[in-house]
Amino acid sequence: MERYKELKSGDPFVFPGLEKQFTVVGYIPGGFNRIILKANCNGGTGTRILKIAQAHEGDADADQFKGKCGQIHDYQQSLQRLGVLTPSPITTHENVIDGKRFLLETSPFTGQSVHEMMLTAPRNDVLELCQQMIDVALKPIFSQNLRADGNLPCGVDMIPRNFTKDPGVMHYVDLWPPKLWLDGEPTLEYPEPMDTKVIQLGIFRHFTIKGVAQAFLVQLCRIRPELRREFQRLVDGALKGMGLHEELGWLQQQPARQFQNGGDLKQIIEPLGYEQIYGLREIACELAFQGQISAGQLERIFKDSHFQDTPLPSATILQIKEVLFH
After folding, report:
1. Among candidates 284, 289, 291, 250, which has minimal Cα distance to 269?
2. Which domain holds residue 214?
3. Which of 87, 108, 129 is the last residue of a domain?
4. Are 272 and 255 in contact (CB under 8 A)?
5. Is 90 exceeded by the pLDDT of residue 190?
6. Contact, 103 vs 94, CB < 8 A?
7. Same structural domain for residues 316 and 190?
8. Collapsing DSSP states into helix, strand and coil, what is residue 10?
9. Is 121 in the same domain as 25?
10. Which of 172, 240, 234, 247 has its CA nearest to residue 208?
11. 110 with 87: CB under 8 angstroms?
12. Beta strands 112-113; 100-108: pairing state
């Protein structure tokens, strides 16, 4: 990945098998396990987004990497059938460079990151952006008929960084890793987690109405904690408007709401472990809203609680609780 990490504005972008030639014009932050570049297509055919991922070392991980190009297209088609607007057309390319396997996804540039817009936008503009994310992706995803196991057939990662907006249109832009079911198993991350607890939390976050709704709410509050009450009303209203009363009731009974409604913080957080990490994150957001922890502490909790293929150690959970119950 070093060859792509070192690219700067004005450098040519080269990928074996890619017919079109590109010139890098910028780097887009926010990708885990991949590099995201903004580039101009030489020949005047527009600006593209280039997303590069590298297969991890080890035969098992490399085998997982194979076939991801097809899965990306399948995932996009599943989203589009639901009415979720994604950048189109996309192309995918897989090749070996210096003995290492790489995957490249290219797509049209579709505007500024909604995450970046939310950081500085006025209150009403932020709420309008949130409503658009609900309309563009949350409602279509929740409109699916559930699988027999109660999970969503097509998953999603509802974080503002995964949305872009030009002056008129919002897109959902995160197709990697795809959120699908293949042979009865979910595709969650790359490499795919093997730990049962991690898999169950991944399914909860990406393939259940409760988990998607809570993760979305928490990510909104992470960016603008002072607007937590407005975000709650938006997400609650979306669930209520879709007739998802059980899920709404569950969300309103989460630990953060219990604390918000006067519950004792220590008693609420004491029994929470790794399996309730999103509940702990939401409590952190509520404390930030109340001014009891700083924005820096809130961001530190999110970074410390990030996980991908292994559960968080018990010591990390205890450290988070210590910050929450300061």
Report:
1. 284
2. 112-324
3. 108
4. yes
5. no
6. yes
7. yes
8. coil
9. no
10. 247
11. yes
12. unpaired
